[in-house]
Write a structure and sequence with these properties.
InterPro entries: Meiosis-expressed_gene_1. It comes from Psophia crepitans. By secondary structure, this protein is an alpha+beta fold. The chain is 24% helix and 15% strand. It contains three helices and four strands. β2 (66-68) and β3 (74-76) form a beta hairpin. The two termini are 22 Å apart.
Length: 96
């Protein structure tokens, strides 16, 4: 199953209603981990800040492929899972 993240659309200035920490790894948690590593809450905030319509994803896995940080340097990610089990509880899941 591919992650929903790469297909989601960002609307102007959406703020999350609540937040909780991830309990177990999933495709969505993996992508949130990648956005948070690059300094963003999630895909919605990334699209607002960077003014992009599409986030580059790996076609095989649906995981985020590359992100531009706020200082304009790039983060490149692997096709495989990068968020280890010990990191999962650090990932914040935002509810809109």
């Amino acid at each position: 199953k591919k992650s929903e993240v790469c297909g989601a659309m960002a609307k102007a200035d959406i703020k999350p209603k609540s937040v909780h920490h991830a309990k177990k790894w999933s495709d969505d948690v993996e992508n949130l981990y990648r956005f948070q590593q690059a300094g963003y809450r999630d895909e919605v905030e990334y699209k607002q800040v960077k003014q992009v319509a599409v986030v580059e994803c790996w076609p095989e896995t649906g995981f985020v492929k590359k992100l531009q940080r706020r200082d304009n340097t790039f983060y490149y990610y692997n096709k495989q899972r990068e968020c280890e089990d010990k990191e999962v509880h650090k990932v914040k899941v935002y509810v809109y």
